[in-house]
Amino acid sequence: xxxxxxxxxxxxxxxxxxxxxxxxxxxxxxxxxxxxxxxxxxxxxxxxxxxxxxxxxxxxxxxxxxxxxxxxxxxxxxxxxxxxxxxxxxxxxxxxxxxxxxxxxxxxxxxxxxxxxxxxxxxxxxxxxxxxxxxxxxxxxxxxxxxxxxxxxxxxxxxxxxxxxxxxxxxxxxxxxxxxxxxxxxxxxxxxxxxxxxxxxxxxxxxxxxxxxxxxxxxxxxxxxxxxxxxxxxxxxxxxxxxxxxxxxxxxxxxxxxxxxxxxxxxx
Length: 268
Fold this sequence. Notes:
Residues 218-268 are annotated as: Disordered. The chain has helices at 3-18, 23-32, 97-104, 152-156, 167-178, 219-243; strands at residues 36-45, 48-58, 65-75, 83-88, 109-114, 120-132, 139-145, 183-189, 192-201, 206-210, 216-217. It is of the alpha+beta class. The protein has two domains: 1-97, no CATH class; 152-267, no CATH class. A four-stranded antiparallel β-sheet has the order 1-2-3-4, with helices on one face.
């Protein structure tokens, strides 16, 4: 067995989101020197179960193995049939297991990718469940390149989100959304803090907002809240100047939502 190859694959598996639990199985299979082999991995996301099959293939010219792809079967608690999608490994920035789950939930993920010319570029990825490849069985993976004009930070600024007032919480919020997470956020409504959930929507250059029950909130309603909040902030600033008081409580650090939105796969 090629030890350097094993160390490389071990790290590749780990940083693609499968942890260190597959290390011994990986070594055992490489020692057998079979032309190809698979490893199995299971993850729970709330009430959903995602089963991944990792595919490895040996070079025909050397003792080097390659981690080529992994296939995910997503079993949702409210569906009898599993949703399937294969994700391919590349040298730039692999789609992690959690990002794969988020994509299969219908959300968008931001990644640095390498095109056919070997050039690095940034793009948002989102599965189109209405289009499938008859050859691979995969759903089409749409790309919204950096030139498409979607600016997540600018889009968030249109909403009365408390976390945006703190640089660290703002950074955490944006990074989480770029990974495709349905993210908790604190909306300011008439002086009242309301917990809602948000996700990136690059195709329409906006964000999707959900209430505490993961029911969609219209963008028009959100913009009206932003306008109302702007007026309220102006009044508060005047009051602060008069009273010389300050608020000592910082915004709560965003945490990943435990509840999950129903996958768009139901529209298939």
